[in-house]
Amino acid sequence: MLTIIAESLLQERMFNEIRKAGARGYTITNAEGEGLRQRRVSEILGANIRIETIVSPEVADRLLEVISTEYFERFAVIAYLSTVSVIRGEKYV
Amino acid sequence: MFALGLKGGVELSHSSLAAISGPAFVTILLGCLTPVSAYLVLRKLGKFSIADSAGIAAHYGSVSAVTFIAAQQFVTSVGAPAEGFMPTLLTLLEIPGIQIALAIGAFQMASAAKAAGGTESAQLGRPVKEILHELLTSRSMMLLVGGLVIGTAVGETGWKPVQPVFEGLFKGLLTIFLLEMGLAAGSRLSDLKHAGFFLLAFGMLMPIIHGALGAWLGSLAGLSVGDCTVLAAMASSASYIAAPPAVRMTLPEANPTFYLTAALAITFPFNLLAGIPIYFEIAKRLCA
Question: Which residues in chain B touch residue A39, judged by CB atoms under 8 angstroms apart?
Answer without folding.
Answer: 256-257, 260
